[in-house]
Fold:
Amino acid sequence: KIKHPDRVVKALGGVPFFIVYAGRQLSKGTEVITVDDMRKRLVKDFMNECDIALSDLLNPGRIRDFIVELSIVVPLRKTNEKAKLIIASLLSIEKGQISKCFTRLEERKLFRVIGNAFRFRADMLGDLCLHNRIESDQEFIQSSLERWIEIETEKIITNLAAASRGDEEGAAHKVIQDLVQRWAIEVNKTQTYEQQSRLKHLQPAVHLAPDQILSLVIAYANSKPAEPEGKIKEWIGPDIPLDMDDYGPLLIDIGRLPGYAIRVVPVALNLFRKRLGGMYVCYKLTKLFSSLVDPFTHSTEDIKRTIEYLYKGSIEENADPYIT
Structure:
């Protein structure tokens, strides 16, 4: 019997996957290892299982490359022939071999299929495999981004963000920061629907590039997007400007990062001065600012700094009416 289960849960960051794994260790009388060692052991055990399952289909050195590549683009539809072709080219094998590998991994219950999409048997395993590969390899992350950014934008950003969550700034942070800066430079060449799509893709990755994303929000708000032409204009209809429904989710998520609520305030004020519309109440003026001083998601120090900033602005001679 575990005397202090609450301590085990806290030490493992409340992650269910780790808690179950630690529980199994304890039930066998095994000493509980650190979270970092647990991550490495989980990846090692999973990769060993994949080595055995695919030993007659891929060369030993290619199996791990294959699993890591999947961790970048899962969930991956089994019918995604373009993705299969990219992976096959990367591994220097026939595309048909990829389908055989999919089938084998599913049969061995190392991967699962949900809604015709191929996923790791536990999503956490995909994050750990990718985390283990990208820890300090900026060149690998950059090449992966170049390989997938045009066809699997959301998945590669989401998976890189999940694999880097909680880490100190590292290789993934630098690559995503550079990407966002490039998008800011392209602002007047980017059509509105593409700006909207990019903001949505960045939502899970705010912790990787918060300053750069705030700069991108300002750039988009002050830009005159390129007009869609030809068939694209027919498909997407009239060009509708970005509104608070597009910017709000990013501002709230960035505001929840330690020390960032006060940095979000001037950006939000800039957007409200433009009288941007939006459907959702949570991104309106009072609700958004209320979220920046929510004691459930912000430290006392961050709340105090944000309120002081707003108060000072409200008593100035030419006080901003939105602050007041």
User: Anything to note?
Assistant: Strands lie at 76-77, 111-114, 117-120.
